[in-house]
Amino acid sequence: MSTTPDAPAVDTSRSYQEADPSAGLAKSGALARLLAPIRTHLVICAVLSSLSAAAGIVPYIAVAEIARIMLEDPTGAHSAIWTWVGIGAAGASVWLVLLVQSSRVGHYADAAILHDLRVRIVRHLGALPLGWFRLAGSGRVKRAMTGDLEEMHEVIAHALGQLTGAVTVMAVGTGYLFFVDVRMTLIALGVLGLMAVCYRVSMRSMTTHMNRLTAADARISAASVEYADGIQVVKTFGTGGRVLRRFDDAVDEHTQAFAAWVAEVRYSSAAARLFGSEMAVLTAMTAAGLTFVDHGSLGVADLVAFLVVAVGMPNSILPAVTASQGVRKGRMGAANIERLLARPPLPEPELPRAPSGHGVEFDRVSFSYDGVTTAVDKISAVCAPGQVTAIVGPSGAGKSTLASLLPRFYDVSDGAVRIGGVDVRSIPSAELLASMSLVFQDVALLRDSVAENIRIGRPGATDEEVRRAAAAAHIYEVIEQLPDGYDTLLDAGGGSLSGGERQRLTIARAILSGAPIVVLDEATAALDADSESAVQDALATLATGKTVIVIAHRLHTIAGADQILVLDNGRLAERGRHDELLARDGLYARMWAAQEGVLA
Ligand SMILES: Nc1ncnc2c1ncn2[C@@H]1O[C@H](COP(=O)(O)OP(=O)(O)OP(=O)(O)O)[C@@H](O)[C@H]1O
Q1: Number of H helices, E strands in the chain
Q2: Atom 23 (ligand 1): residue with closest C-alpha?
Q3: Segment Disordered: which positions (predicted)?
């Protein structure tokens, strides 16, 4: 917990790392909890589909009874036949009406709850610390909004009805058959029971195999994305073979995992299919039935009842098998969604305070991503308005982490970050973010026009203001030469803009926003000399009169900074101006010598 007096109480024990998806919270019961608001609808849907299934079996019973009447008294009056025809037709009508009603109620409840969950997820995402998105990635968000919700949809709109329907068909069907002949019914149930046993055997190690397949799937996706994202590097440096090998390995692993599963379950699943088929029930009923008829212990009419009703039962059981797998997936989807909704949101201040000024202070700031390893360790520094503070250090020293504590991508584990004397945790997050321009190296452009991409900095800005910002960011001429000028559509990758041009576009956005604090992560990728100097000029314009914090990778770009913080292994190793640090002959001097050596 912070030792500083103005630090609001927050839970610093939180870990920002995404929990293992297979880990426990809400693993069981998540589906029931998330569906609680539509429980009544689900009960109605289940009752309707159960009644519908019961009505659906009536026509089969009617056919069997008509056959009985005709076989037992072929020459008699057949008025009872018409009664059964009526009962059968009524059963079919009720089946259809109730089926439609149950589907209507299920889909209505499904649409309502999924809409509700989508809104909850989006609101929750809006309240999560921005750092979470960096760690979890867009894949996690996409999975929640599409795959996980779709799996819940399957349960609500389809699986529930199929399962209740199957149970009812079994109950009503066997009830009627027991009434006709107990021995034949037990034989029919025996065949279906064998199917259940074989199915259970084939599903015994499903979780292990599914986990292996899911892991292989994830590796295939990662290798594909890695290949597509890094296609330029891959082709330029001829490392395509290595990346493709990772892809091939992942595909091989997937194939092997699948083959191992198939090899293990091939007999049990084939047997389950066999015993669950109409063919198996028909064979068993015919063989046993004819034997009993031969011995005179079963009437032909009773045999017909089994051939009509018992043989039809597998038809409703097979969809229920698929439905039970759907329920399993739905439970996993619900657990994922519940886990996402359980991520703690960024705490908003109970007593918001307004900063007086825009000086930034890091006061004995510590931070750990996992609650174990310290990424930033007791760093103190003051970044005055109108001055440029550069953060430098070897890779992994904690530069980006320290800077990301200012916009509260993560909250400090200890100490405090202040703006204008106020702890950032006491400033409402919308105001906090509005007070700073963040220019990161993973330049974020939207799929929109050039003008709109700049206007994000200040949505109400006029075209003229957008143009002035573009001019100040030294990107004006580049835009003028684009096919549709400011109306040219960009894609998320920036379309035909170069790396330096994309950076200047985001600098124009930051200039337009006029935010008094600027945090920028210098591009690690080397730009060509012209682009580099254009970016430097743009940054100089952006920085005028502002509190500027630069995460620098190339030291010569920040040699003129007012203050340089040299981080090493999460600690502040040195601080001072360029000349002072060179004179100290420490880490900075060594890094400088190394970079100059490369440049020389
Ligand atoms: N998302 C994360 N989860 C866990 N640890 C992380 C995460 N991001 C960074 N770290 C760890 O925190 C430490 C500081 O990383 P950070 O990215 O802040 O360093 P950096 O100086 O900015 O490095 P670079 O110059 O390579 O970008 C490193 O040990 C890094 O491995």
Answers
A1: 23, 10
A2: 396
A3: 1-21
